[in-house]
Design goal:
The chain has 116 residues and is mainly beta. It contains no helices and eleven strands.
């Protein structure tokens, strides 16, 4: 059974940092791009960042560029999202995502709350 499990969310003050992790199991995604999305209350899920299979290329939403960094360790089947200089508007449930074999895989999400 394929699973993506996020962790690392929590409550942090504005300006603080958090590091999210997404561990995959059930199959290897080492040759697939991985991404992070987020969904704030009352809003649609939105793209945050994506990284290619090797970790050599990454793309970010304008709203998080220069503050967030996506990375991956294929040997650990894990992708990370380092979030710095957090803002209240970053408050959301953060989801890990990948696509393989024409299917989208999602984790259950981890809550990030940034207080002002």
């Amino acid at each position: 059974q394929v699973q993506l499990v996020e962790s690392g969310g929590g409550l942090v003050q504005a300006g603080g940092s958090l590091r999210l992790s997404c561990a995959t199991s059930g199959r290897t995604f080492s040759r697939n791009p991985m991404g992070w999305f987020r969904q704030a209350p009352g809003k649609e899920r939105e793209f945050v960042a994506t990284i290619n299979w090797s970790g050599g290329s990454a793309y970010y939403a304008d709203s998080v560029k220069d503050r967030f960094t996506i990375s991956r360790e294929n040997a650990r089947n894990t992708v990370y999202l380092q979030m710095n200089s957090l803002k209240p508007e970053d408050t959301a449930v953060y989801y890990c995502n990948t696509r393989a074999g024409g299917l989208d895989y999602w984790g259950q999400g981890t809550q990030v709350t940034v207080s002002s």
